[in-house]
UniProtKB/TrEMBL annotation:
Coiled coil residues, start to end: none
Protein name, UniProt field: TetR family transcriptional regulator
Phylogenetic classification of the source organism: Bacteria, Bacillati, Actinomycetota, Actinomycetes, Kitasatosporales
An MF annotation (GO) of this entry: DNA-binding transcription factor activity
Record-annotated HTH tetR-type domain positions: 14-74
Record organism: Streptomyces swartbergensis
């Protein structure tokens, strides 16, 4: 196989993997991880289950690829995240309910013993809390107006973000995530929230 043929094959394989990840995201959003099957994902992209296993050898490998892809979509360079940008992220999330639904469903399922995404979410939340502590430290220094340290307030900030998502998913007509988050910023003392 020539170099050009190998590059073309690799590009096709990468495009097929991306298509499979998107389909898996849809199936998981509809059925949850436990209810999603490799056969359903394969059917959605026009493959046999064996063909899908060529790209992702296990359901767990596909789940990790879905979660990693979601994180890539939301990635922000280190040190670039600010409290006011979090409000923009909440507004952005309100425009992509399927992604938020999938993430929330997987998060909820991951708290069960033996779930393949449990380690991923545990590690992810360790990093998210640390990032939120840095965001709060950049805004307020070592103490928030309430007297809490950024490390003590970070889990509360994450709880607000995730809790608003769950409430919004359950009743989008009654819960305006972006407005509620701006209200929370007002509670923190952000004058122009």
């Amino acid at each position: 196989m020539s170099y050009g043929d190998a590059m073309t094959a690799r590009t096709r394989s990468g495009a097929r993997r991306a298509e499979i990840v998107r389909a898996a995201l849809e199936v998981i959003a509809e059925r949850g991880y436990r209810g999603a099957s490799l056969a359903a994902v394969a059917e959605r992209v026009g493959l046999t289950q064996q063909g899908l296993l060529h790209h992702f050898p296990t359901k767990e490998a596909l789940l990790v690829a879905v979660l990693q892809e979601r994180d890539r979509w939301d990635a922000m360079p280190a040190g670039r995240l600010r409290l006011d940008l979090l409000a923009s992220l909440v507004e952005y999330n309100a425009m992509r309910p399927a992604i938020i639904q999938t993430f929330s469903a997987l998060l909820g399922e991951s708290v069960t013993e033996g779930h393949p995404a449990r380690a991923y979410f545990t590690e992810r939340y360790t990093g998210v809390r640390a990032a939120m502590a840095e965001v709060l430290r950049a805004e307020y220094g070592e103490r928030l107006p309430s007297g809490l340290t950024p490390e003590r307030a970070a889990p509360l900030l994450v709880a607000i973000l995730d809790g608003l998502q769950y409430q919004w998913l359950l009743d989008p007509e009654s819960v305006d995530m972006a407005s509620a988050f701006r209200d929370f910023l007002t509670l923190l003392g952000e004058a122009d929230a």
